[in-house]
Design a protein that fits this description.
By secondary structure, the chain is an alpha/beta fold. It has one domain: Rossmann fold. 26% of the residues lie in helices and 25% in strands. The protein has five helices and eight strands. Strands 1, 2, 3, 4, 5, 6, 7 and 8 form an eight-stranded mixed beta sheet that branches. The longest helix has 14 residues.
């Protein structure tokens, strides 16, 4: 009986689903305008798209636009392997919580103004449902007008990023496997300290 040849094929490796949300807020109406966020966001979005991320770019987002974009991204992230968020713009910290500020944010007179208008970072992180999540914040916090206003309103502006304790990012453990979640923060301001949680 003649010998038959068998052709074997390697199993197809499923392509990763990669999503990215890139936000650049420069043209603030009530807070000082920022020169770099829009340009940085455009550059980051182009780079992410070139390496296979399905990228949503949002520039100069109002509170409504920012929340709508995050809700849509959170929903889409359920089917993603990797979800990447980049934010550049004004940020603030109130009572240990970090907030991203939309361009229609008025100068805050109390901490509640920031809490009710800004987007809480922990809410953003916890809304993402992908296997791996990466959040990078380039938030400007050198804001004398905001600081002065909060002082007049008896607020207590904090300096630096607060730990992401309330978010569901994994905390580092000795000899742990490859990290699946990353939070990175950077910005300008007196006493500002960048933070990375892996």
């Amino acid at each position: 009986m003649p010998q038959q040849e068998r052709t074997t094929t390697e199993p197809a490796v499923p392509r990763q689903v990669r999503l990215a949300l890139v936000v650049g807020n420069s043209s603030y109406s009530g807070l000082p305008k920022l020169a770099n966020p829009a340009n940085d966001a455009n550059a980051i979005a182009d780079k992410l798209s070139s390496i296979g991320f399905r990228t949503t770019l949002v520039l100069d987002s109002s509170e409504q636009d920012l929340r709508r974009a995050v809700r849509r991204f959170a929903s889409d992230s359920a089917d993603a392997d990797i979800a990447f968020v980049f934010y550049a713009g004004h940020g603030a910290q109130v009572n240990g919580e970090n907030y991203l500020l939309p361009v229609d944010m008025e100068i805050a007179r109390t901490e509640a103004d920031i809490q009710l208008t800004g987007l809480k970072v922990d809410d953003l992180v916890n809304s993402i449902r992908s296997t791996t999540k990466i959040v990078f914040l380039d938030a400007c916090r050198d804001n004398p007008a905001l600081f002065k206003s909060l002082v007049k309103g008896r607020g207590a502006p904090a300096i630096g990023l607060a730990p992401t304790i309330a978010s569901n990012l994994h905390q580092p453990k000795p000899h742990c496997q490859r990290p699946r979640d990353l939070f990175a923060g950077s910005g300008a301001g007196p006493g500002f300290g960048g933070q990375t949680t892996i």
